[in-house]
Task: structure prediction
Amino acid sequence: MKIAALIGIAVLVASMALSAAPVGFAAENAEEENTSSSLTVGIWVDITLSNVPIAWGTLTTGTENNLAQANAGNPATTTVESSTNTNVDIYIKGTNWTYSSYTLGADNCHYDNDATAGGPKWTTLSTSYAAGPNQGFFEDVTPGSAKNSYWFINIPTSQQQGNYTNTVSFKAVKDGNTP
Amino acid sequence: MQKLRLLGALAAVGLLLMLTSSVHAPPPPPQENEPRYNLGCGYREPFRDIPQGGTGETILYFYSAYGNVTCYVAVNVEAAPQGWRVEYQPEMVIVEPQWFSENKFEVEPGQECLLLKYVEDNENKQGYVRAWTVKVSVKVPENEALGTYTVRVGYVGDWKMGGMSAVTRAGNAEWRIKVVESTPIVGPGTSPIWFIAGLITILAVPTTVFRSKWVPAMVSLGSKIRSRAHMPTLPKLPGKPIKLMDQLKVHKGGRPAVVASVPGGEPESPPLPPGHRPTPRRLSLTDIGIAIAFILMLFGFLLVVGLL
Result:
């Protein structure tokens, strides 16, 4: 009979000990919600955009490579903040400009890593991100650093006048990830 | 003398004010006149292994420590194997900027107070930020082949800045999730040790329990009355059978009495032998052990049922 008692007490003690120890996925989730522990286990990507939105002011039709206004795309600054704990790749895409029923294609826009049109980093704005990994406009950017992009636009001769708007997206992913 | 007292009181009040203001004042954010469109995102990596037919969960954290403009973050699924169910809750969070705090602070539901490392003036620091959470749930089909699969959840932060070319900031969290064999005993939310403990209990306890007088032991534990071993046998009465619980109702003196109404009037309790005083049964170690084992057996059973 004492064996029964001992088994019962032993199992109880074991159960209490186990319940105090974090085991399994549920416990990991609980840990995940514990604010202090997140410091060591996560991927953190922290980006600040400044000198945006991008603006060109009023432009004349039939002009090319109009550089954006100062501190509004000339340049646009992307800062990978120091709280980021991995290198990142930054991809860029944009939509077409629209005004009422009129459209200005995204491919009329280019961006570069300097204020001069042309050169190795001269890139046409696309409506989708580059397909594969490691094809960002800025690659392998280290935390605590900033990257500038300079924005240019063409206005075709036949373009209808109006206030055109679009959206430009900067996508920052962990180095090597697919955008 | 009065002047000195007055000065002392004023100094004390001033000191108190200084102390309280230094405790409650948050550290000042960087002085910025220009808008800073900031969004941070954090997530756990790697994702936990998920058994076939199982579900795994993780959390995305969004915060804006460096910004000064509210950000509207929408989440979407960018990639998942066919047949998998990837869900997120909520679908959108509104992230308000808040500079790093030296001290932990209270947060509202759906938020977390996160401790992050950062650099300020070439000095390594750490501080708490207010983060908004999105819970991501990944459900694997039961017939999914074993292997490793990619799940990618994207997000877009929009500051609704307007203008000719408004800018958004996107990102994603990508996980390589390993699908492991499904077993009835091991799954998310538990450990095999629990099952083993339950199994031991289930196997060991009935053997000992049924060998013992478990009914009296349990009864004595629950109602602290004499066990049936010390109870005099009641005479068989005609009419309605007397229930066990009726038998167990006792007088203050410890002698059992029948309170159930029976045809022919209330029966009397049989007299005890002369000179015999019933001794109250004390709880033995065995009784306690059996009771604990019984509870754990029940717990083990429920655990197994819950897993299945």
